[in-house]
Amino acid sequence: MDEETKTEEFTAAAPPDPDAKGTGETSFADAEAPPASERAVAEAEDEAQRYLELAKRTQADFENYRKRMARENAAAKDRGVAKVANELLPALDHLEHALKAASGHEDVVKGFALVRDEIVAALGRVGIEAFSPEGAAFDPNEHEAMAAQPSDGVEPGTVVEVYQQGYRLGGAVLRPARVVVAQ
């Protein structure tokens, strides 16, 4: 073979350089890091600080998101309960009228009363409470005035009769009480 056509063979394992430090194998003891400049250190610290601030903001944003979702879920639950209650309250009112009309028929009254008590208890378990403001001062936020009548011995603006009970869910009025107010 000509020397011009002869190719050299290369291998991945090269013999160690006799002038190199150590045994020819790389170790951390042999490594020499270039000295860091003050500018490079300051830039690295600034970058680390930016990432730390970003992580803190992200964590705070996530915590705010979690709290907002908890509030929105609670509000959605309350809206669902309120919707069901608004559908049930007229039936409960009719049951109350049936109880009044059935007086004298004790077996019927007992049956109606049991059904009414079960419905009221179920509404109570989901946080809905009835209120009857007889004798209280009229509050347009909680009462709906159906009539006004003169009443002796009662201050004007006082509820003297309740036509229909009001209902609350967690302090918010689902349905105002329908009342007669003293003049």
Search tags:
183 residues, alpha+beta, Nucleotide Exchange Factor Grpe, Chain A, domain 2, three-stranded antiparallel sheet, 2 helices
What would your notes on this structure say?
The chain is an alpha+beta fold. The protein has a domain of 57 residues: Nucleotide Exchange Factor Grpe, Chain A, domain 2, CATH 2.30.22. The chain has 2 helices and 6 strands. α1 runs antiparallel to α2. The chain starts with 37 loop residues before the first helix and ends with a strand.
Question: Considering the protein shown, what is the CATH homologous superfamily of the domain at 127-183?
Answer: Head domain of nucleotide exchange factor GrpE
Largest sheet: 3 strands, antiparallel
Q: Encode the helix/strand succession as letters.
A: HHEEEEEE
**What is the count of helical runs?**
2
CATH class of the domain at 127-183: Mainly Beta
The value of Rg in angstroms is 41 Å
